[in-house]
């Protein structure tokens, strides 16, 4: 069973193409995390928010990543991290064309 890790936080940028350029090494490193399956990057420059929707193979690997990533974000000066972990209802996700892998 796969798990979703939803993270969001306040950030003063960068956003858009600049974010893609500056965070590309980070994005590549995320793909090497244990149990990682995929990530959708989220951003809202109007409200200075960013984050992501991650999919991990197990709840344990999602929790381990969240712990590590929260420390990394704190190192960037980001302290108020909102995070939730959910199970995925695969049958309904398939009907609505969601991709889990």
UniProtKB/TrEMBL annotation:
GO molecular function terms noted in the UniProt entry: monooxygenase activity
In this record, what's one Pfam family? Answer: ydhR
Record keywords, A-Z: Monooxygenase, Oxidoreductase
Q: Does the keyword Disulfide bond apply?
A: no
Reply yes or no: does the keyword Methyltransferase apply: no
Q: Which InterPro entries match?
A: Dimeric_a/b-barrel, YdhR
PANTHER family, from UniProt? MONOOXYGENASE YDHR-RELATED, PTHR39169
* Protein name (record): Monooxygenase
Organism, by scientific name, is Bacillus taeanensis
């Amino acid at each position: 069973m796969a798990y979703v890790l939803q993270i969001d936080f306040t950030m003063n940028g960068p956003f858009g193409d600049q974010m893609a350029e500056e965070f590309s090494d980070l994005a590549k490193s995320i793909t090497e995390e244990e149990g990682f399956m995929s990530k959708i990057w989220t951003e809202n420059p109007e409200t200075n928010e960013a984050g992501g929707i991650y999919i991990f193979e197990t709840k344990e690997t999602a929790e381990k990543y969240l712990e590590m990533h929260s420390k990394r974000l704190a190192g960037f000066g980001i302290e108020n991290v909102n995070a939730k972990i959910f199970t995925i209802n695969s049958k309904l996700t398939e009907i609505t064309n969601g991709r889990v892998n």
